[in-house]
Amino acid sequence: MHKYSKQTRILVAVDCIIFGFDGNELKLLLIKRGFEPQKGHWSLMGGFVEPGESMDAAANRILLKLTGLDKVYMEQLYAFGNPERDPLERTISVVYFALLDLNKYKDQLSDQFQAAWFPLKKIPKLIFDHHDMVNMARAKLRYKASLHPILFELLPEKFTLPQLQNLFEEVYNTSFDKRNFSRKILSTGLLLKLTEKDKDSSRKGAFYYKLDKKHYKANFHNILRFIPNPNDFI
Questions:
Q1: CB of 62 closer than 8 Å to CB of 46
Q2: pLDDT digits (tens, 9 = 90+) for 146-187
Q3: Which of 92, 152, 180, 213 has its CA 20 to 30 A from that of 166?
Q4: Which domains does the chain have, with CATH numbers?
Q5: pLDDT score for 144
Q6: What's the CA gap between 88 and 59, in Å, rounded?
Q7: What does the H/E/C string look like for the chain?
């Protein structure tokens, strides 16, 4: 088989950024790196792309191997290619990010690589340029959440308005007045009120809601009324 002459071979890796929401805090899934350099330090889930393997296939394989998580939706974020990013060898990393309901998947985590959830406000020091990757993913999440209903991927099928407010405050690093948030989010026409209540958080309880999937495409633009300008997060 012919090869391009006089070209340097470069390693290609994938790194997976997994955001999860537990009803109160937005969290990031990390592992302890299993090999040098910086073995034992906190890291995103990552590994090298194998011959004959697509980027998507590599991301799913690595995530399953390192955490035990399977069939998690991920999308490609960016390629990090600074020549100095890996001190051992020239490596380009293609980064993916995913959103999931933390409570739905927490029992699936493998303990082989000490996978653990960290609140975004308390992320430990990460290897290489992984902090830059996380910061870019957070900005992308904020931007996309203002244009598409992707934040609902972080919620269970039925949720309360306080849970939804917590999520928006975590994603946009801001706070909303409780009454104003409830009034404005209900005015969007995105939610369907259920008859059930969550009695765990208070004696009175809070009604559960779910996303109105039949109408969210038509009504989702209404959410732009009360979230920060999406152009600030490009």
A1: yes
A2: 777 788 889 999 999 999 999 999 998 888 889 888 998 888
A3: 213
A4: 11-145 (3.90.79.10), 158-233 (1.10.10.10)
A5: 83
A6: 22
A7: CCCCCCCCCCEEEEEEEEEEECCCCEEEEEEECCCCCCCCCEECEEEECCCCCCHHHHHHHHHHHHHCCCCCCCEEEEEECCCCCCCCCCEEEEEEEEEEEHHHHHHHCCCCCCCEEEEHHHCCCCCCCHHHHHHHHHHHHHHHHCCCCHHHHHCCCCEEHHHHHHHHHHHHCCCCCHHHHHHHHHHCCCEEEEEEEECCCCCCCEEEEEECCCCHHHHHHHHHHCCCCHHHHC
The answer to whether 125 and 42 are in contact (CB under 8 A) is yes
Task: Return the structure tokens found at 130.
Answer: 């992984």
pTM of the model: 0.88
Structure tokens at 152: 């609902």
Average pLDDT over residues 37-46: 94
